[in-house]
Write a structure and sequence with these properties.
The chain is elongated. It is built from two helices and seven strands, in the order E-E-E-E-E-H-E-E-H. The model has no long low-confidence stretch (mean pLDDT 90).
Length: 104
Amino acid sequence: MQFFPAKLIDEGNQKILAPYWIANVVNRFNCVDQEQSELEYFRDGTIEFIDKLKLRVLKAKECGDIFRMAEFLPLLVVSDRLKAGLEGAGISGFTFYKPEDFSL
């Protein structure tokens, strides 16, 4: 993980809001079960659409609580533990999907 400080300024009073950080998830793992998933590809072989997503089981100690799908970098995979922690802390800005409920 990489973390970068960010300043958020209130447009009304120009005050800097509480410290914020931008997180860049750099870990990536090949986790898509290509045979069980229904995927559409660009000509170069990268994933264009995901009609059905099935992930391979990975050991948590190998990949941690958050990582990118190496096959489709815009998507992040998070553990149930991290999801529960974010929701419990009231942190917003995330939408969570179970792999079987996700399509793009």
